[in-house]
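not sure who needs this but someone in the group chat was asking about Protein involved in gliding motility GldH from Flavobacterium haoranii so here u go. i didnt clean anything up, its just raw.
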Amino acid sequence: MQIKNNSYLWLLVILGTILISCDNNQVFDQYHKLDGSWSKNDTIRFDFEQTDTINPYNLFLNVRNNKDFPFNNLFVIVSLKNPKNEIKIDTLEYQMAYPDGKLMGEGFSDVKESKLWYQENFTFKKSGKYQVEIVHALRETGSITGMDKVDGVTEVGFRIEKIK
């Protein structure tokens, strides 16, 4: 009887995992893997096709970082290029750690994933190919020039979700 109960338990775990991993809101979700640090010369680029010019979407940056990330905040410059080569540029700041230094984000290991708002209720005005580019804009306090590299960033992603 014990073997049969274990079989049912595993079946429930597998079904639960499948149901949780289903994501009906996802339109686009990609990651760019880094080698444990993000160089100022690493421009993270995502290309995607968008045909819906009527419905609004939520756009997110996803950042996976670990305990080697030396800051509480992350500054990035994000550019969004539409099919007519018009570019919208934003400089954004995100809180990545609590005041005590504990990383924010989801995850059970020392790697945390943060889903960061980029654009809320965004409507793509033109149909066609879009491009998002992300670079970090971190610098040490009192420094004018940006840091050559930032340790602790393992992946950077971009996500588009349908609004429910």
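also The chain has one domain: 27-162. if thats useful
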